[in-house]
Design brief:
Helix content: 40-55%
Structural class: alpha/beta
Number of domains: 6
CATH topology of the largest domain: TIM Barrel
Distance between the termini: 89 Å
CATH superfamily of the largest domain: Metal-dependent hydrolases
Number of strands: 24
Radius of gyration: 36 Å
Shape: globular
Length: 1016
């Protein structure tokens, strides 16, 4: 007896069993066959096949799905008899996962061959018909289904239910009337009877309901029944038919997919066409004067690529990159190990010379280790879809697909989902989830052993303990399917022959198998990656061309611009790709880059492994006497990185020059070192030592060198990747120093909505001499714009001023002239639909300042101005007061602190100079908080009081802590009891103060006195 109807967790939130559970249960019940029949999806198929074969079990794949016939919805179970049957299941799953309605029975007829079909156990429609004794109607349905598949069985299920036992008798009558066999079918969705609660929990999570909701469908009795239990419920014949079905199943063999043949315009064979393109491209790179070593390298690479059958792969990549450039879509200069290929360089796939920069082809494609090439391509995130559409148009809809990935229930999300379903409040569960470390190395079940606070909380609160136990049971389950970040697969024939697809509302369908299983079925991945920085660069180039009429080719930039390296040495790299963090900016200051290779080295060094060798590297960089030398043969290889291994390619070259390895063997060594398998490493070390002996290097020295290589292999960075990404870094720096207005205009446009980022970039831009023109009702637009050698602030920075509002403001001034009279301007804004609150916001950030009236004056008399709204008319395209005297505005005093407060409130940052900046300009003895944090002693500081926190000392005296903020940072100020008694009535939040402090700790100071500033 075999269980034929088994759902896994890949029937998303419809089963409490993992693939591992299903395999284990089959083994524990001494079965030689194991079955997987997920609901509608086939996400778990490949994992299941691998796990079953590893366990020595015969895998059987089926699918549960719904069909529609004569207005009724029926559940069916189909089991694949062989490879062709499995392909038909792929077709069925693809159809049902890509349509919102159930499959019409006529559609099923096209996929019925090589399948065993039966009604799915527990079908409510069929059960109701059987309960009503509709034998003729049921027999008619069975007769139709029998004609579709190779064989049809009538499933008998839920025999432990009196109602179903009665219904099943009717099904048997219908089966007997057609001489159809009946089979025992007990759907399995969890392991033990008590696990029905887990299934209910999963369904509640999926439906965002409480577990107590009576509409949740989670049947009892769906556990993994023993043979003895099954024998007590089903007839011998019905149980024997499960084995009869299994006997019909052959091994699943599916032919591998092939890459599309690239449709070149001249009809040449792909190998010949690729060669011709490479020769032409190499000549173009060298203006027809190609050095002989480049010809030799090209021939070597082509020999490998052609022998592996990858010509079409390179041509496909070359073609979509060429198409992108023909559409003026900026393409990244390369990515990953593919930049080590001269073929990629000649085709324009990458743009760093691999020969001149010692980038290794074998790191990309190893002739001794057959593996698929992996060329990743970066596109601007706003134009990537255009290229995907082009690829689909070229090769066909079902020949191109995304790759599925799964969002899984991690520790915190599992706890939150369970709490929601179990009616535990957010506040209560948050107290528990806060104790779960981010990216914890422990599963929830292990956490109490390592976290005493977590253990105490779940043991002391029964409700939280129940949530915890529930979360343990579902942690790691797939919650929903999503898309791999950039992976796309292509196939010569329809992909559905190798894998089921699903429509998730994207332009392309999605392969239901995850990435790790695709290569074995012949589906080769191409990565089309979105890179926001390419979008920024492309926008900068457009702005430069529009403003200055210059069309810049980034690939022709000289890589020795001294202004770029001065920028890098000063770490003025906010907004520059990969160089924004404080840590890497500190490294830039210490490193002092002078040439392009230095940029690549910085990118490689600032990573968790190599970081620990930064000091060693820098000592050698600035004093060659400090450079380590393990052996003279290694010195040329390690010269550029201070005598230490930084790049993976250096490991490979060392294996070649010391151990006598070929570069192909060296790549296998590099890969083996990263896996750290002792037995495998011992063999490689023996070979390395033997090769070193032939170079006259004794075994002790060779073992020492091998040990150092092994230590660094785990952390070594891909040099090819570092060089091509270094090129993007250089390009952004070049734009920043040569076209700063365009750089900051685009950069600031990209972070509208983030006050913190906007503030950082504006402060840096100002420090580099960029002026910012104030908000203007007449000159501002939705985004930043270049005006009068500066950047005009845009309306979109202002909270409550949305895009439709901005469009109306701009359209009004275009149609009826500039805003000139302050009262008329306010009324015009009201007439075009702005609310009083929006008008007030425009006034408070200064958009009407140019109309020669203060913000305070307009705000104080705003209601009076608006009351005149019905008394203006449009005459000759101009707004005028109709026969009435305009309101007289009484001038109100300026309140600088209120202005600053409102700017921060409406923008999220201070757009005019922070008041503390003005104080520092008047009194040079006042330090910025950034400077204060770097020193100790008595000092003057200035800023705005952000918060005041009264507190009692151990003796019971009142003191306080205040937080002071300026444009450079914040500092905590401790106010001792005697001082606090003296100033507590004067010190208030949002007040601008000059403080005398004594700083003797890294992040706080002691209050010594203050001056409150009322007017700046």
């Amino acid at each position: 007896m075999i269980h034929l109807h088994v759902r896994s967790c890949y029937s998303l939130l419809e089963s409490g069993l993992t693939i591992e559970d299903i395999i284990r249960l089959a083994q524990e019940h001494h079965q030689k066959t194991v079955v997987l029949t997920d609901h509608r999806t086939m996400y778990g198929t490949m994992e299941f096949l691998h796990a079953a074969k590893k366990a020595g079990l015969k895998p059987v794949i089926g699918l549960e799905f719904e069909i529609e016939e004569n207005g009724n919805l029926y559940s069916l179970l189909a089991i694949a008899k062989n490879g062709q049957g499995l392909q038909n299941l792929y077709q069925i799953s693809t159809w049902v996962m890509s349509h919102s309605q159930p499959m019409p029975i006529d559609v099923l007829k096209a996929f019925g061959t090589n399948l065993i079909l039966m009604n799915a156990g527990g079908d409510e429609v069929l059960e109701n018909m059987a309960y009503q004794n509709m034998v003729v109607e049921i027999a008619t349905l069975f007769q139709t289904l029998e004609q579709i598949a190779d064989s049809f069985y009538v499933a008998i299920s839920l025999q432990d239910s009196p109602r179903f036992a009665k219904s099943n008798a009717t099904l048997e009558l219908a089966a007997n009337s057609l001489d159809l066999p009946c089979v025992a079918l007990s759907r399995v969705e969890y392991e033990h009877p008590q696990d029905e609660r887990t299934l209910r929990l999963l369904r509640a999570i999926g439906q965002t309901k409480s577990m107590d909701d009576p509409t949740i469908q989670a049947r009892k009795g769906r556990y993994y029944r023993s043979k003895k239990e099954m024998a007590s419920l089903y007839s011998v014949e019905q149980l024997a038919n499960t084995d009869q079905i299994i006997d019909q199943i052959e091994d699943y063999e599916i032919p591998k997919a092939n890459l599309p043949i690239f449709p070149n315009r001249v009809g040449a064979q792909s190998d010949i066409y690729l060669k011709e393109l490479c020769i032409k491209g190499l000549k173009k790179r060298f203006n027809q004067n190609v050095p002989s070593n480049y010809w030799n390298r090209l021939q070597m690479e082509l020999d490998v690529i052609l022998s592996m059958g990858f010509s079409d792969y390179f041509l496909i990549v070359w073609d979509f990159i060429r198409e992108a450039r023909s559409r003026s879509i900026l393409v990244g200069p390369g990515r990953g190990s593919a930049a080590g290929s001269l073929v990629a360089w000649t085709l324009g796939i990458s743009h760093v010379d691999p020969v001149a920069n010692s980038l290794l082809f074998e790191r990309f494609l190893n002739p001794s280790r057959i593996s698929m090439p992996d060329i990743d391509t970066d596109f601007p995130d706003n134009r990537r879809q255009e290229i995907l559409d082009y690829v689909q148009e070229t090769y066909g809809k079902y020949h191109v697909a995304h790759i599925v990935t799964f969002s899984r229930m991690k520790s915190r999300s599992a706890l939150r989902d369970c709490a929601r379903a179990m009616n535990v409040s957010n506040r209560e569960i948050s107290q528990l989830t806060q104790l779960v470390p981010n990216n914890s190395e422990w599963k929830l079940a292990e956490l109490p052993q390592h976290n005493s606070a977590f253990k105490h909380m779940i043991e002391s609160r029964p409700r939280l303990q129940a949530v915890y136990q529930a979360a343990c049971s579902i942690e790691g389950f797939p919650r929903h399917a999503s898309l791999h970040a950039g992976g796309i697969v292509l196939a010569r024939d329809s992909i559905v022959q190798q894998a089921p697809l699903v429509d998730v509302g994207e332009h392309l369908p999605v392969v239901q198998f995850t990435m790790e299983y695709l290569e074995e079925i012949g589906l080769i991945k191409f990565d089309f990656l979105s890179l926001k920085n390419l979008t920024l660069i492309a926008s900068m180039l457009e702005v430069i061309e529009k403003q200055e009429g210059k069309k810049i080719d980034l690939l022709k930039l000289p890589l020795d611009d001294p202004k770029v390296y001065l920028l890098l040495q000063n770490a003025q790299t906010m907004g520059v790709f990969q160089l924004e963090s404080a840590g890497i900016r500190d490294l830039l200051i210490r490193y002092k880059p002078e040439k392009f290779e230095d940029i690549a080295a910085v990118l490689a060094l600032y990573r968790p492994g190599p970081m620990k060798n930064i000091d060693t590297f820098l000592k050698a960089r600035f004093n060659r006497a400090n450079q380590k030398s393990m052996h003279p043969l290694l010195d040329p290889i390690l010269k550029e990185t201070g005598g230490i291994f930084v790049y993976q390619e250096q490991i490979m070259e060392a294996a070649k020059v010391i151990g006598g390895f070929s570069l192909a063997q060296a790549d296998m060594l590099r890969k083996a070192m990263s896996k750290k398998k002792p037995e495998e490493m011992a063999k490689w070390q023996d070979q390395f030592v033997e090769g070193a002996k032939e170079k006259g290097i004794d075994s002790t020295k060779a073992q020492e060198i091998f040990g150092v290589m092994f230590e660094f292999a785990e952390y070594g960075f891909n040099k090819s990747h570092s060089y091509v990404y270094g090129l993007i870094v250089y390009q952004m720096c070049w734009l920043k120093v040569n076209y700063p207005l365009a750089f900051y205009q685009v950069l600031l446009d990209s972070c509208i909505g983030s006050g913190a980022k906007t503030n950082i970039f504006i402060q840096e831009a100002r420090s580099r001499g960029i002026s910012f023109l104030p908000f203007s009702l007449n000159h501002s637009f939705e985004t930043y714009s270049q005006q009068v050698n500066g950047l005009r602030l845009p309306f979109s920075l202002i909270q409550s001023i949305n895009r439709p509002t901005i469009e109306r403001i701009i359209q009004e001034r275009h149609e009826h002239g500039l805003y000139q009279d302050p009262c008329l301007s306010v009324i015009r804004l009201i007439h075009i639909g702005l609310t009083n609150q929006q008008v007030e916001a425009l006034i408070q950030v200064g958009t009407l300042d140019e109309l020669k009236v203060t913000r305070e004056t307009l705000i104080a008399q705003l209601e009076q101005i608006i009351s005149f709204a019905d008394l203006i008319t449009l005459e000759g395209g101009t707004w005028q007061f109709a026969g009435v005297t305009p309101p007289v505005l009484h001038k109100m005093p300026i309140n600088n602190m209120e202005r600053i407060k409102k700017e921060k409130e409406l923008l999220g940052f201070y757009i005019t100079r922070h008041p503390a900046t003005l104080l520092r300009q008047k009194n040079r003895q006042i330090l910025s908080l950034e400077s204060a944090l770097k020193q100790n002693g008595h000092m003057q500081i200035a800023g705005i009081i952000q918060s005041i926190r009264p507190q009692k000392t151990k003796k019971g005296d009142q003191m306080a802590f205040a937080t002071l903020a300026d444009d450079t940072g914040t500092l905590d100020i401790a106010i001792m009891p005697i001082q606090w008694q003296r100033v507590q009535t004067q010190l208030e939040t949002n007040k601008l103060v000059i403080l005398q402090v004594n700083k003797n700790r890294p992040d706080s100071a002691i209050f010594n006195g203050m001056q409150i500033i009322d007017v700046i």
